Records
---
Amino acid sequence: MKQLIELDINNRVYEVAVDARDLLLDVIRKKVGLTGTKKGCGEGDCGACTVLIDGKPELACIKLAIACQGKKITTIEGLIQEGGALHPIQQAFVDYGAVQCGFCTPGMILSAKGLLDRNPHPTEYDIKHELSGNICRCTGYKKIIEAVEAAAQVWSKEGVK
């Protein structure tokens, strides 16, 4: 039996009909049409589906959509700045070559944003710990860590959010 719920995604409210078992990932991709959030393993192991829920990184592939009603959800599309400019974390990933195939990138960036929102001066250990739930099969992580460190520098200087 479908139930009508409202989801606040990227500061826009979507009214969607969901089953009690519908996963947030499927609702975001198939019902709302935001395809930046990726489906990797579908089991909560790879981090490709990471979104921010009330500012905290969470795995959309194991989160029930119905449980997100009344919460603020941010996907990778929600980071685009006014005028279409990339968010500083996105720009750092480009500048430091931290994207290869790009499949893990949205989850990595949102995990990094969750970290920098809580801790704008992370150590390398903090970054590694925060990104430990995100798997990248292309880069070896060095460039990703460098990109997050660079974004933290911008965060500190410009007070980015």
---
Amino acid sequence: MKVEELLRGKGREVVTIGTHATIDTLVRRLRLEKIGAVVVSDDGETVDGIISERDVVNGLADHGAELRAMMVSELMTRNVVTCAPSDEIRDIMRLMTQKRIRHLPVIYHGKLAGVISIGDVVKNRLEDMQMEANVLRDYLAVRQ
């Protein structure tokens, strides 16, 4: 299965936040949207960075209460690992595991086309395994 197929099923909506937003605004947005990371983009089409709950926790350890007033651009990850709609999910699983990444922006023709999370990938794999089990069960039922 390819990333494109996964996006077709889950949707292409991407929550973004601008570089000049405060961490306080970010935290409220994460809670409101019930998500673990936000793509940082000033124009909604290009990826300037990504910021996650993990970044906020690390920032809190480093900056304490001052963190809330800091800008997203001061804390975000700038070198963002991305993927393409044509990438295979099995390759994305390997990449996410090796690099310990939980969210990957999907880029198509230089523009933000979606985001996939480790949860999306795991859900997809579980569905595949369930389908395989059902096919094997049906096969065995017919043979008996």
---
Amino acid sequence: MYAIIKNGGKQYKVSEGDILLLDKMSLEDKSTFEITEVLAVNNGELKTGTPFVNGAVVSAEVINEGRERKVVIFKKRRRKDSKTKRGFRRSFTRVRITKIAA
């Protein structure tokens, strides 16, 4: 059984027990929350929503919050004495999918 959920403008294919990194949600560790934006559920037969499946809920438990490794963006234009260096670290919430209810 799996579901396709929407979070932060991105879509994730999840099943029970999966661990994934979502955009930061400022929740306490060990807390639970529900995702109601379920685009599709497959439990033997595929149910798709328009855009969301009615009554489908994915329950998740927060493991921790953190930040990923820094991504360095370096641009250099040769022979122009022009260069820029920028960095970016994404903040995330690590969650474990506990239950998929169709």
